[in-house]
Amino acid sequence: MPITDENAALNAIAALDALTTEQLDALHAINAIINIGEPFVDICELFGYYDKLYFRNPLVPRVEAIWSPRLTLCAGICDLSKYPSTDKFTRVRLKLSTPSLQYRPRSDTTNTLLHKAIHAYFFITISCKHSRNDDRTGHVAGSQPLADTINNHGNYEVTIYHSFHDEVDSYRTHVSLCDGPCKTQPLFFGQVKRSMNPAPGKTDAWWARHESECGGTYT
């Protein structure tokens, strides 16, 4: 029988009942890294220790953690990638946003990294089912209990939903304005803000609806 997300969460939680020597070593290494006072941490190294401490080592062989200077619309993402030989999603890449996190407290980096590590854990343990739950976000039922346990254990503040609105909006410097009826309607009043400058068009998921309900032209 395939493992469920609840069972995967319970397996990780149970591993914290009595820490092994490897977990204790990882805990000491984590504390040394996050208390050095440098503006950026080596998230690849830190992720490896989090894997040992909280997930029992399944992640590092298949998950890469990197800083991304081009990621501006969120604090981090968890990407699935395929091996060409198998055409299956078998690897995960965690990207943390350099622009969104570089001026925020160290805790925001560690909380974001752990948030994405939880995603990666479920991708590895319950496969692509993790990305197909009811809200399509990958926040399966086991996510909250696991996040709560990690928070209580390490005094973190990992949340299921998080967004750095001010930072995200500051990078949306390319603005398109519609001249149709939607320019008088909330929530966006005809504006599309982006961090890069492609004009709104057919590649946007909402474009067909805009054409039928508004029909205006973006400038």
From TrEMBL:
Keywords: Nucleus. GO terms for biological process: DNA damage response. This is SprT-like domain-containing protein. GO terms for molecular function: metalloendopeptidase activity; polyubiquitin modification-dependent protein binding; single-stranded DNA binding. It is found in: Nucleus. GO terms for cellular component: nucleus. Residues 41-219 form the SprT-like domain. InterPro entries: Spartan, SprT-like_domain, SPRTN_ZBD. It comes from the Eukaryota. The keyword Transmembrane does not apply. PANTHER family: DNA-DEPENDENT METALLOPROTEASE SPRTN (PTHR21220).
